[in-house]
């Protein structure tokens, strides 16, 4: 009787140890989930930094007209009345040196 009980408890312990190393909630599964959490935290930190920069940008734009003008000049190509716009095309830029009809057909090179 004790021998059967001993073998039964041994088999139960063996099954529990196997489940500890293989299957759901096993050590490798927990490590994989911890790595996913670390990756998600890194992505969250990156997004938080982007959000912080955008919030600073919004505050700067709402308080300062010069910041709005700077954005309009750099991103939209705004030119004041009476100013002359000069575009410098470098020889190292193959798309910019093509004629207009060929430049539209050329693929974007970044």
Automatic annotation (TrEMBL):
Keywords of this entry: Cell cycle, Cell division, Cell inner membrane, Cell membrane, Membrane, Transmembrane, Transmembrane helix
Membrane topology field: Single-pass type II membrane protein
Predominant location category: membrane
InterPro entries in the cross-refs: Cell_div_FtsB (IPR023081), FtsL/DivIC (IPR007060)
Signal peptide: none
Periplasmic-side positions: 23-110
Role according to the record: Essential cell division protein. May link together the upstream cell division proteins, which are predominantly cytoplasmic, with the downstream cell division proteins, which are predominantly periplasmic.
Family of this protein: Belongs to the FtsB family.
Protein name: Cell division protein FtsB
Species of provenance: Thiothrix caldifontis
High-level lineage: Bacteria, Pseudomonadati, Pseudomonadota, Gammaproteobacteria, Thiotrichales
Gene designation per UniProt: ftsB
